[in-house]
Write a structure and sequence with these properties.
The protein has ten helices and 26 strands. The chain has helices spanning about 70-75, 130-135, 150-160, 185-195, 220-225, 255, 270-275, 300-305, 365-375, 475-490, and strands at about 15-20, 20-30, 35-40, 45-55, 60-65, 80-85, 85-90, 95, 105-120, 120-130, 145, 165-170, 175-180, 205-210, 215-220, 225, 230, 235, 260-265, 280-290, 295-300, 345-350, 380-385, 395-400, 420-435, 440-450. Helix 3 (about 150-160) runs antiparallel to helix 4 (about 185-195).
């Protein structure tokens, strides 16, 4: 993506191309019911914020408006307006087209922060979202569905939501049959996503989201791999001084765009959370309603880890088996932490006979894998501040070198953190366009589910008999009686008699 930047067009990091910003009312402009009332607010917009997320079904954002024309009352603003504009990074073909002529407009749904700034002007924030997010609140899916999950998602997007946006779907395996009981479209897709299995990968579960290109339905593993090998990164972020000259006397704009202004390690590990969520180990208790039987299935993350692709690979693009977030070590009494499946119990009711001879998906096997893969990405989370670029989307892979912060002369020739550095998946993007400063910046939330260098494997038992063994048990009432007796024996304390 960054390698495709036209250096002759983009001459400075943070530049942006913004067309007119128009608000279109639901009211008629001339009473003829042919032309809607519209007004340009570009000169009044101080800031634009756009949000992409793998966890949200649609795009959203807001504009900060310094209103000295009483637009809020003369249009008027009611929460049912259309907002149109186009935003691109110069020299890049990919961007946001929210125009009615060539793209898909966004829609105002809320106004916040309204406050006076002068006797004749006011400030407020207009929030907008994708049309499908509004339509989702007015529709219900109430029908039986048969086929592959990807076919069902296409049907919901095209026929229920009636979306005209591009839709990229990853094929799924297995023919399913569901009866949807009046669920909203996005809730229905979320339910289907949890039961989906990608056709070419061993993982389970899919994600449905929207980026600048349209809607996407794909697995996490598809974001990490392509054609049986690790997917290449589209950006290589570094923290270093700007104005990179490379000895030529001219700024390298591509490297300049990939130089971060700052970063924060939001999470590096959370053992308690991962144990509670079943990332490392869990047990699935299954009730077969038809045969009236119970069964148990244990999930071991160390066993599952080598079977799927992760953010890190083996150095040649292949699967890796030794870069897990969970080190191999003797947790207690010769057991690994992943051997303790009782830490997380899941329950599911299923049956081998649903709707005559139809056999349901192996949910008891899929669910632990889905949760372990998704939640493992919450352990290593970075936030990067960098110059804005509309060519990057959530679901893309990037790399970042985290400094080691060690004294010079230590045994680290690269001077980077060996575990937190490496390949990351872009989970969230916040674009911020400051029209007053003529600057486009963005914040990236990037995540990973593996370490760059494998943790050491050890057999030392750090828990068994590693604490004081001379513990005692006391009865509270006996302690209370003893305290009272001692108090009464004190000659200066007559109140306790």
């Amino acid at each position: 993506m960054y390698s495709q930047i036209d250096k002759d067009t983009l001459t400075k990091a943070g530049r942006f191309q913004l067309d007119d910003i128009t608000l279109v009312s639901y009211q008629s402009a001339d009473g003829s019911n042919k032309n809607a009332k519209a007004i340009s607010i570009k000169t009044q917009v101080l800031e634009i914020n756009l949000y992409e997320s793998l966890e949200g079904p649609g795009l959203s954002g807001n504009v900060v408006v310094a209103d000295a024309q009483a637009v809020i009352s003369h249009l008027p603003l009611t929460g049912y307006e259309r907002i149109e504009f186009r935003l691109y990074t110069p020299g890049v073909g990919k961007g946001y087209d929210f125009s009615a002529a060539t793209g898909h407009p966004m829609y105002i749904y809320k106004i916040t922060g309204r406050q006076p700034t002068t006797p004749r002007s006011q400030l407020y924030i207009l929030h907008f979202c994708s049309k499908e997010m509004l339509d989702n609140e007015t529709l219900r899916v109430n029908k039986s569905m048969t086929g592959t999950v990807d076919q069902m998602v296409v049907d919901i997007v095209r026929n229920d939501l009636q979306s005209k946006k591009n839709l990229i779907v990853e094929e799924t395996r297995g023919v399913r049959k569901y009866v949807m009981p009046r669920k909203k479209p996005f809730d229905t897709i979320k339910l289907l996503s949890q039961a989906a299995e990608p056709q070419k990968y061993a993982s389970s579960g899919m994600l449905f989201y929207e980026d600048a290109t349209g809607f996407r339905f794909r697995s996490i593993e598809n974001m990490l791999a392509i054609a049986g090998a690790a997917r290449p990164v589209v950006a290589k972020f570094q923290q270093k001084p700007r104005n990179v000259k490379d000895g030529t006397g001219e700024t390298d704009i591509i490297k300049e765009m990939q130089t971060v202004d700052g970063y924060t390690i939001k999470d590096q590990f959370d053992t308690l959370k991962n144990l509670n969520n079943g990332v490392y180990a869990s047990k699935m208790v299954t009730h077969d309603m038809y045969n009236k039987t119970f069964s148990e299935l244990s999930f071991d993350y160390n066993t599952y880890f080598p079977t799927i692709f992760h953010t890190e690979h083996d150095g040649s693009g292949g699967l890796v088996d030794n870069k897990s977030q969970l080190p191999i070590f003797n947790y207690k009494d010769g057991e690994l932490l992943s051997d303790r499946a009782e830490g997380r119990l899941n329950f599911v009711s299923t049956t081998e006979q649903i709707q005559n001879d139809y056999e349901g998906e192996p949910y008891e096997d899929m669910y632990p894998k889905i949760m372990a893969q998704k939640l493992s990405f919450r352990s290593q989370v970075l936030s990067l501040d960098c110059k804005g670029f509309t060519g990057l989307s959530v679901g893309d892979l990037c790399s970042f070198e985290v400094p080691s912060y060690e004294p010079p002369g230590m045994d680290n020739p690269l001077d980077i953190d060996p575990y937190m550095s490496g390949r990351y998946l872009v989970r969230k993007i916040h674009h911020r366009i400051s029209t007053s400063n003529d600057m486009h910046t963005m914040n990236l939330e990037i995540v990973k589910d593996a370490v760059r260098v494998a943790y050491p494997e050890e057999s030392i038992d750090t828990h068994t008999y590693r604490e004081n063994q001379d513990s005692l048990t006391y009865l509270q009432y006996q302690l209370d009686d003893s305290l009272l007796e001692n108090a009464n024996n004190e000659t200066h304390n007559q109140l306790m008699k």
